[in-house]
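haha ok so turns out i had the wrong file open the whole time. this is the CORRECT one, sorry everyone. sequence first:
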Amino acid sequence: MTAEMGSSSGGSKERSIRFVWWLVVFFAAFLAAVVGVIVARLVLFGLAGNTVWDYSIAGKTFWNYLDVFLVPVAVAVATVWLTRAQRKRQLEVEEQRAQDQALEAYLDEMSQLLTDEKRPLSKARPGNILSTVARARTLTVLTRLDGRRKRSVLQFLYESDLLKKGAVVVDLKGANLSKADLGLADLSAANLHRAELREADLSEADLSEANLTKADLRNADLSASDLSGADLREADLSEADLRETDLTETDLRNARLSAAYLRKDNLKGVHMRGAYLNAIDLSGADLRNADLSETDLSAANLHGAELQEADLRGADLSAAILSKANLQGAHLSRAYLSRANLSEANLNRADLRNTHMSGANLRNADLSEADLKDADLRETELREADLTNATMPNGQKYAD
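then structure:
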């Protein structure tokens, strides 16, 4: 049935293109004939020193002929435009009908598999024949549906207990859920491992405890959604909207959040070790005691951020804005702070051993009691910085 609908839709599009093409050819030939007649009459009667623009034939100038020529041109253009608009609308209606039929056929087939008395789909296990057939059918239909209908498929699978974390029957790994409309959807504890959710609308959705490892969530709208306890390890959240999102105890280790929009006052308990947060705006964020070791925060805006006792060992903070940030007691050994702006930052008792700080701006920073042993301070701006009792790169205590 799906193959027949596909071939029917393809044939309809081909006929439409052929029709428009022949219509254009017809009117082009018609216009060429009109021009040819006008030129022939002018040539036959001779121009005798008069220009094409003011020569008169039977009381008619070239402009009169041009008026006659413009009328069929306007009619032709209008006809072609109206025909194309009508065909476009017809194709859109046919496409919507085809999607409805595909969704209906999918739901009918899956319902039959679920209600089979001998081998119900709900009892299947990932990898067996029944699960494989259901997965293949699901992945195929998702490629044909728009965002609203993708929601119907996902909600059906979830409510049929085929997508629950720890008991997955239909694996959506690699499923095309891009631009899916999932706003306000209840998908708590759903398994969406490796699903493609680029530009999907997940605003206000319940994704608490969901498995979203390695999911593609680039440009997705996750604003005001519940991601508490969700597993987002290695997920790509680049440029995703996470404003007002509940990230309590969310696991974002090794996730990509480049240029993502984050709620800055709700990052306590978030696991972000090894995450990619380059160019992200976290100004004023509360990241006290956060594990950000090996994290890419290059060019990130952390102005005024609370980073007391944060673990930033091995983190890349090159060219980051950390002005007025509170890094008291932070662990920054082996971190990259080259060209970072740390002016007026609080680095009291911070561990800065073996830190790369070449070209960093530490003007007016508080480095009292900080450990700078073996740190790279080449071309570092330290004017008016407080180095009281700080351990310098050579291992000696700072002396005024």
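Residues 1-9 have pLDDT under 50 and may be disordered.
again sry for the mixup
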